[in-house]
Specification:
This protein is of the alpha/beta class and about 280 residues long. The protein has nine helices and six strands.
Length: about 280
Amino acid sequence: MSKWRKDKRIAKWNKLTLRNNFMFRLVMEKQELCKKLIECILGIKIKSISYMEHEKSFEANLKSKGIRLDLFVIDEDGVAYDIEMQMDNSYKEFLGRRTRYYVSTMDNNALKKGERYSQLRKSYVIFICTFDPFGRGLAKYTFNAICNEDHSLVLDDGVTRVFINTEGDRHRISKELASLIGYISTGEVTDDYTKDLDEEVRTLRNDDGRERDYMTYMQTIMEHEDMAYNRGISQANKAMAIKMLKANKPYEEISEFTELTMSEIDELAASLHMYIKKV
C-alpha cells in the first residue's frame, strides 16, 4: 500500500462493510444478490434483472470524472430501478432533489432511444440511508405523487421513490427487510440472504484488484475534496486581501497574512482601481 498516499479519511479496505457505498456497489454486481435486495425492499417478486451499464465496465467508470456509485438495473418487464447507498447525511435535505435527477436521467436515456412519453418505463429510485432522512423514525419511506386536495387521487407518472432508514423502527416492516437493514447497520447475520451478502463482502475484501479499484476511487475523491477546500481557502484569502487593501495596508503585510504573492495582490488592487504602496 506504500505507493498510495496515506490519508486518514480513507477507511481500510479490510474493514469495509455493506454500508460503505463502494463496497455496496461491488456486492450488488452479483445479479442474484441485487435482485433479492430489490425484492426485499419493495416486497415484490421479479424473475431477472439486467445491468444498464454493462457496456461500460466499472473499471472504466472509476477513471471517469463523473463517477456515480448508484446501480441502474431493469427487470424482465422493463421496470427500471436506480439504487444507491447513502452514507453522508450532510446534504439530506437535498435527497428528494437527488432522486429527481436520477429519474430524469433514466427518462432521458429512454427517450434518446426513440421511445414516446407513453412508453417511459415504470421506475423506482431506492436510497438506502445509514441515517434517518426525514427524522420520523420510520425504517421505510415510500413516496408517490398524490393530489394535495384529494389524497386518494394518485398521479400515475410511473415513479416511486423509496428511502430506507437502517436506524429506523423495524416493527412495521417485513421480517426479511428488518433482517437486511439490521445487517447493514450492525453486520449481524440473521438469515440466508444476509449470510450470502456477508460472504460476498468477505470475498471482496480478499480481492487485491478490487482493493486497488477502491484506493484509486478514494484517492480521486480526496483530491477533488482537497481542490475544493483549497479553492475555498484561496477565495477567503482574496476576500481578506481586498479588505486589507481598502484599509490601505502595505503589500508586504497583506502577503504575509494571506499568503498571496505580490503579483496576485497587484492584480487585485488593479481590479479595484486601487493604488496602494507595496511596502
